[in-house]
Amino acid sequence: MRYHDYYMHGGDGPHVFAWLLLVLLLVLLVGLIVVVAARWGGLRKGSAGTAPAGLKAGEDPQELVRLRYARGEIDRGTFLQVSQDLGGPAPG
Fold first, then answer.
1. In this structure, are 37 and 69 located in the same domain?
2. Over the chain, what is the mean pLDDT?
């Protein structure tokens, strides 16, 4: 059997690896497209990670702490500490 006959007519030659490489590259390309689309979609919505968890855009963190204290979700010590941490004046 000659070299040409082996690779062109039925031998498990390099074409198997070429198909595997093609599939791998397609999977990587699709993954890259998904990552780029997710980041681009997140930036378009204005949620680029600027607001901490639990805050909506435009909400004041100090006001959120006051509301949680008023609802009884946090105690006075936590309220005072968080208020100071956020840079607001310590309530008297």
1. no
2. 77
**Chain centroid to CA 90: how far?**
35
The residue length of the chain stands at: 92
Integer Cα distance of 86 and 74 in angstroms: 15
CB atoms within 10 A of CB 65: 21
Structural domain boundaries, residue 79? 51-92
> pLDDT by residue (tens digit) across 25-52?
999 999 999 999 888 876 655 544 454 5
CB 86 within 8 A of CB 65: yes
Same domain, 32 and 7: yes
User: How far is Cα 66 from Cα 82, in angstroms, rounded to an integer?
Assistant: 10
Q: Match 């946090």 to its residue by tokens.
A: 74
Q: With beta carbons less than 8 A apart as the criterion, state whether 83 and 62 touch.
A: yes
